Amino acid sequence: MPGKKNTAGGAPRQRKIATRLSHMGREPHENYGFVNPPLYRGSTILYPSVAALRSRDQKFTYGRRGTPTLLALEESISELEGGAHTVLTSSGLAACGVTLLSLVSSGGHVLMTDSVYQPVRKICAGILKRIGVETTFYDPRIGASIADLIRPETQLVYTEAPGSQTFEMQDLPAITDAAHAKDVPVVTDNTWGTPLFYNPLKLGADFVIHAGTKYFGGHSDVNLGSVTTTEAFATQLRQTHGDLGQCAGPEDAQLCLRGLRTLVIRLEHHEKAALEMADWFASRPEVARVLHPGRPDDPGHELWQRDFSGSSGLFSIVLNATSQDAVAAMLDGLELFGMGASWGGYESLALPFDPSRYRTATKWEAEGPCIRFFIGLEDLDDLKADLDAGFARLAAAS
Ligand SMILES: *Cc1c(COP(=O)(O)O)cnc(C)c1O
User: Closest by alpha carbon to 186, among 126, 143, 225?
Assistant: First the structure.
């Protein structure tokens, strides 16, 4: 019943994002009126005839190569990011790997931000090195000076803003200008900003990666990644993705599609709650610095203000000098903050980390130990009380 499609309020792409999130990737009247699309599982997809098999002239040909469930999420992410094509992967890290492998070849060179999601460093030191691709890590705050590091054999510049764990901002337009002047494509991991707050393709990037595991899923029960690109790179990306046999699980894709429906209200809360908690940390005598580009005193604030329309729920703090045992005493007793990798769910998390262990292009100099916080959906007074008790344990153990 195409007549039932809701076209009120102008062309769909002109509507506000909250509206589009409620309507994208579903056609209720093609599914007996059910609000949500059905979950398609399956490997074998049947062809009606030898002629059809030979021509492969049907929309879906094999489960790994696509299902209506995967397509609905792909198209939704493409629309959110303003890209031509999206592929889904089994995890966010797989999305990083697929993107790198779709762009590099033996003898090539990669420019990688020193603030990158840490496991990506292993792809560089492992697979890329093995196939003869060299990686140069660069200072995330390099801006237009990235031009000085680009060589004739450079095949991509990889960015992530703000940086994983340490939250440095990157001047993406300056980097894309410099890279494009030498025909080098630019990749951005946009997991922190989400398409609601940051649109790297509009700022010149050619590839946008998401760990759908985080905010898209939103409930810590999904592993999924996505890569969105422009028309120019779509064939290249699709081919590498297909050759590697990458696909996402149908249930995970369905859960991400469902997560997108509530992304606006979840992110609104995460933003507000994280800023309030960051302020609270900044007022604590135990805290030397808060690393959150949404705060006016952050070195990346100006860039964030220029390029982002919001901030999300993840930030870090640097404590004043103290022992690791005191940090353990603080964190071990927390009742509401979980300790573990990943984030983007409804529950708050705390994770100690030490960038000096893995940085190579920049030297991490900090007053004391670092802790990354994710602020979930709990009541902030309860979270503060939990942390208050934590700081008392820290003081007692110092
Ligand atoms: C978590 C994360 C990833 C990896 O996602 P997984 O689904 O855990 O593999 C990639 N990039 C960033 C920025 C992340 O935070």
Answer: 143
Total residues found in the chain within this entry: 398
Q: How far apart are CA 175 and CA 204, in angstroms?
A: 9
**DSSP string covering 38-90:** PPP--S----SSHHHHHHT-SS---GGG--HHHHHHHHHHHHHHT-SEEEEES
Count CA within 13 A, CB hemisphere, residue 370.
19
Global pTM reads 0.96
pLDDT of residue 57: 87
Contact 333, 389 (CB under 8 A): yes
Indicate if 16 belongs to the active site.
no
The CA 248 to ligand 1 mean position distance, Å, reads 15
Q: Where are the alpha helices (DSSP H) in the chain?
A: 17-23, 50-55, 68-81, 92-103, 119-123, 129-130, 172-181, 194-197, 231-243, 250-261, 263-282, 301-307, 324-332, 380-397
**C-beta 166 within 6 A of ligand 1:** no
Query: What pLDDT is stored for residue 56 in this prediction?
Result: 87
Q: Which amino acid is at 176?
A: T
- Closest Cα to atom 8 of ligand 1: 92
| Residue located nearest, by CA, to atom 6 of ligand 1 | 92
Return averaged pLDDT per consecutive 10 residues of the chain, 398 residues in all. 43 82 94 95 96 92 96 97 98 98 98 98 98 98 98 98 97 98 98 98 98 98 98 98 97 98 98 98 98 98 98 98 97 97 97 95 96 98 98 96
Say which of 141, 214, 261, 295 is annotated catalytic.
214
pLDDT at position 377 is 98
Catalytic residue among 141, 158, 171, 189: 189
